[in-house]
Design brief:
The protein has about 550 residues and is of the alpha+beta class. It folds into 2 domains: about 280 residues, D-Maltodextrin-Binding Protein, domain 2 (3-Layer(aba) Sandwich); about 230 residues, Dipeptide-binding Protein, Domain 3 (Dipeptide-binding Protein, domain 3), CATH 3.10.105. The chain is built from 16 helices and 20 strands. Strands 1, 8, 9, 10, 11, 12, 13, 14, 15, 16, 17 and 18 form a 12-stranded mixed β-sheet that branches. A 4-stranded antiparallel β-sheet has the order 4-5-7-6, covered by helices on one side. The chain has a two-stranded antiparallel ribbon with strand order 2-3. Helix 8 runs antiparallel to helix 11, helix 14 packs antiparallel against helix 15 and helix 15 packs antiparallel against helix 16. The longest helix has 18 residues. It is globular, with a radius of gyration of 24 Å. The protein starts with about 30 loop residues before the first helix and ends with a strand.
């Protein structure tokens, strides 16, 4: 069974972070030796406030970069999206239902107290509890037991096989916290006053809502090699919502690092000789979702007509540029191909392409109940790129006599519609089309297809923005999720793709890249596809 998400994770495409005012780095003229001894203040920008200093609530693009510095899990992802040990020395999958983690026996929390197996099991069970106040209980709803099977060994038993469970402990839902501290602070854990005790290279110091979060170097950090090389004494996350202000702060040196700067200002950041811009493929996609449960988009011929009317390569070249790679009929980009990269490329070469062809578009519209066109609307958020997409759609459909009204909403309002928060009098999602996006929670295509296509995600708090529902698709999604044999699983996924590619509930516009900008005074940190769960600021080094 698939649990609907409890948290409205908004994927806008002015997404995340960027800048500040307070002077970021100290000791600029000091020697490298002095910097390592005394430490520096390193400043990162966020475009909005965090949700909490609690990994159980870290399911957004501003909270996670902070939580990643304070907390750790038994395993994590590396920059290539591989699962690697962290608080565990090793892990293995014994059979389809059994996962064993050999936990390190030398871990201490930031307050100096030893981490025990009680802390490990408590942390995971807290997340599993649907009434535990976290956003991640869905990760562990199929877990039968968390058991200590040796002095420093954890065994997790599942009720059913899972092709994706191995990734779940790498997310914020797998982070280990101090049980004793949580119990002492049950009423205010994760708040500005209550804070958190965990095992990461930095410790929580303060949170001034709407302004900044301040972390300090963890002097009790268990990994002594990493601790000795960490040049950051104070890590400041400055909250600045305004795009231009963030960019100015990055360029004048007030901010040392930022993630996802405004896309329309990328060129000036890339041209700045004092900054290093990094761009990577991610687990993201941007889509146009048709409301398949409401006319006229309940007609597949209409959806195909729209697809053929869009010159997406031209839009990619002229508007998206380096902010993303061109979309395809697949609801996932190359960062999620995994071991099946060659097979997915082969699939694409043979799949329908829905290439720009106005004659084809007119043919499909003629086969529908609306041969002479119709009027409809599309919802977008406040991002400038979203507005460009909507204007492109509006102009492209005009030759078919399809008149598109653009409904511009705030990011929060658009997110509410995307997550099934607004329904019409018939109990259906109250829009015709919506531009939105998604970023997978873990490096497997199931993290996209289950959310975007399963019927359980159609209703409230569901992210099936196309309101797409087909029993055969549900069955295939569930089958590939529990199939652990890679070859068999791929065959099921191909069957699934054949159906959804033909039905066109979504048009994938692009697979956004993510950018990070670092002051050239420093090296050692840049965004990766796994950035949401892994952004090691302790790796920052002076450039010279």
């Amino acid at each position: 069974m698939i649990t609907k998400r409890l948290f409205a994770l908004s994927i806008t495409f002015v997404l995340l972070t960027s800048a500040m005012f307070a002077r970021g780095s100290q000791n600029r003229t000091g020697s490298a030796a002095t910097a390592v001894t005394s430490g520096i203040t390193f400043t990162v920008s966020l475009n909005e406030d965090i949700a909490a200093v609690d990994p159980g609530l870290a399911w957004d693009f501003t909270t996670n970069p902070v939580i990643n510095q304070i907390t750790e899990g038994l395993v994590t992802l590396d920059e290539n999206s591989n699962i690697v040990p962290q608080l565990a020395k090793s892990w293995r999958q014994v059979d389809d239902l059994t996962y064993v983690y050999e936990v390190r026996d030398d871990i201490v929390f930031s307050d100096g107290t030893p981490m025990t197996m009680d802390d490990v099991i408590f942390s995971l069970k807290r997340v599993q509890d649907p009434d535990g106040g976290t956003y991640f209980s869905w990760l562990y709803e199929d877990v039968e037991s968390f058991t200590q099977t040796a002095p420093w060994q954890l065994t997790i038993k599942l009720r059913n096989p899972s092709a994706t469970f191995k990734y779940y402990p790498t997310t914020a839902g797998g982070r280990i916290i101090s049980k004793a501290y949580f119990e002492r602070h049950a009423a205010d854990f994760g708040t500005a006053s209550g804070g958190i005790i965990a095992t990461g290279p930095f410790v929580y110091q303060s949170w001034t809502s709407g302004q900044e979060v301040v972390l300090k170097r963890n002097t009790n950090y268990w990994n002594k090699t990493v601790a000795a090389a960490n040049i950051i004494d104070t890590l400041v996350f400055k909250i600045i919502p305004e795009d231009t202000t963030r960019v100015i702060a990055m360029r004048d040196g007030s901010v040392d690092f930022t993630i996802n700067p405004p896309l329309d200002m990328i060129d000036q950041l890339a041209a700045d000789p004092n900054l290093t811009l990094t761009s990577v493929d991610t687990y993201s996609l941007t889509y146009l979702a048709f409301n398949t449960q409401r006319a006229p988009f309940d007609d597949a011929n209409v959806r195909k007509a729209v697809y053929h009317a869009l010159n997406l390569p031209e839009f990619q070249r002229n508007i998206v540029k380096t902010a993303g790679s061109a979309g395809t009929v697949l609801p996932f980009g190359t960062a999620l191909y995994g071991d099946n990269a060659a097979q997915w490329r082969s699939y694409l070469s043979a799949a329908p392409s829905y290439a720009y062809d106005l004659n084809k578009a007119r043919e499909y519209l003629a086969q529908s109940a609306y041969p002479n066109g119709f009027s409809c609307s599309v919802i977008i958020n406040s991002a400038s790129l979203s507005n460009s997409r909507a204007l492109f759609l509006q102009n492209a459909l005009a030759p078919l006599n399809i008149n598109v009204e653009i409904q511009r909403l705030s990011n929060e309002e658009q997110s509410t519609y995307q997550a099934g928060g607004v329904f019409d009098a018939d109990g259906k999602r109250d829009y015709d089309m919506i531009f939105a996006g998604w970023e997978a929670d873990y490096p497997d295509i199931n993290a996209n297809i289950e959310i975007l296509y399963h019927s359980s995600q159609v209703g409230e708090n569901g992210y099936n923005a196309a309101a797409y529902s087909k029993p055969e698709v549900d069955s295939l999604i569930e089958a590939q999720r529990v199939t652990v044999d890679p070859a068999r699983r791929f065959e099921i996924q191909k069957q699934l793709m054949d159906i959804i590619v033909n039905d066109v509930p979504y048009i994938i516009f692009d697979y956004p890249t993510k950018q990070s900008v670092l002051n050239r005074r420093y090296t050692g940190v840049a965004i990766s596809a796994a950035w949401l769960w892994m952004l090691p600021m302790q790796n920052v080094r002076r450039a010279n």
